[in-house]
């Protein structure tokens, strides 16, 4: 159906373009806030244009949904759609920190078929194909298998008072990279309690699921993609054995915030 090697080359090149603009490598960068606290840079737009052109040529029949492109609701009639975040973790990107990634997923019938993350500032390239497992830099990966909720590793800078039985580990700004940390057994649990967009998580959730993690929304319900409103309330990715405990822990907070 698709030239996999060409797809990987496109996403890899998108990562190279972003890295060539990254302040962390000494490059000057123009950035601004789309809304207060929501930065975007000239690199986000350049990578978005590159991916739209190249992925469109690779699979002309596929629709398109990207953080940096106006949403054409006609995409919902397409069986295939590209879900793209040209630079997930822009706050880290513009700050010269490494916690960002190019995120690309191909979705069919509301489910990701292929997901790829290129994180050149970290030397990481993540890939998953539905039913074929997940890899990091070409090596197969397996997700966390933690069985006890207490002590679970969570990518965060600080833990809420109600969660002090958990363990804080590195937190990239990119939610996709945090999810990938569960896929690679560097974390046991990632949970958000806010409305988020499909383009942030489509590739990473496939990578996590193919590595063996449990993936749901904040209420423990399945995620679907290419919805008319491309948002979900929260995402929960964790070791399967602690999923029920995580849903229970988050339940009251999720209801109140939603």
Structural write-up:
With 258 residues, the chain is α+β, with helices and mostly antiparallel strands. The chain has helices at 4-19, 42-58, 90-94, 175-183, 198-211, 243-257; strands at residues 31-35, 38-41, 63-66, 80-88, 101-108, 111-119, 124-129, 134-136, 139-140, 153-155, 167-169, 189-191, 195-197, 214-216, 231-233, 236-238. It has a seven-stranded mixed sheet with strand order 3-4-5-6-7-8-9. Strands 12-16-14 form a three-stranded antiparallel sheet, sandwiched between helices. Strands 1-2 form a two-stranded antiparallel ribbon. Strand 1 and strand 2 (38-41) form a beta hairpin. Helix 1 runs antiparallel to helix 2 (42-58) and helix 4 packs parallel to helix 5 (198-211). The longest helix is centred in the first third of the chain and has 17 residues, at 42-58. The model has no long low-confidence stretch (mean pLDDT 96).
